[in-house]
Design brief:
Distance between the termini: 29 Å
Strand content: under 5%
Radius of gyration: 18 Å
Number of strands: 0
Length: about 140
Amino acid sequence: MEFAFYFASGIAVVSTLRVITNTNPVHALLYLIISLIAVAMTFFSLGAPFAGVLEVIAYAGAIMVLFVFVVMMLNLGPASVAQERVWLKPGIWLGPVILAALLLGELLYVMFAHQSGRAMGHTHVSAKAVGLSPFGPY
């Protein structure tokens, strides 16, 4: 499971760097989605599946849909449609597809290789523990 943590962390760093260095907002959003899914995988590998699921639902799901909607609303007409067709060639999708396939492979490895349910020697953090922590010591 330590391999899964470092692998997902590496993919998160690489895809976040692609978000920062990319000039096309649609491509940057694709890499940001991969980055958020990789962060969720690090939560899974640390034994916090509830935090990982919240990461996917809240960030990679809802907020990314909002970002894509805003980018679509800012469409500037026929000139931007022609530019988007140039930008969205099949080769553009190669980077996000490779990173997403690596994360999927890691997820399948973690799910089926270790049957014990314990991640890196740590216990799982339940949803109840997450909900009670703000009302306890904090």
